[in-house]
Amino acid sequence: MKRFLQVYQDASISVTQAELCKQIIEWKEYSGRGFSFADDRVWRNAEGLTDTCGDATGWRELNTAHHLVRIVRDMGAMSGH
Prior knowledge:
By secondary structure, the protein is mainly alpha-helical. The chain contains 4 helices and no strands. Helix 2 (17-26) packs across helix 3 (37-46).
């Protein structure tokens, strides 16, 4: 993951949101389209079904949504649900 993120921290690299989303959904740790609305949004953008995933605030919203679902699922699994 660290190497994945370092590529996009270099301001000289320019990728479209669709290209970034394609790389995310091809990443082996991608949770899949059905994991959360955020993962579905990234998938739809990668497939060209949406124009954008939004600005920096929109990306933070997607990141937060994905990780909240992860936490709830992990806690449920730990409690046997």
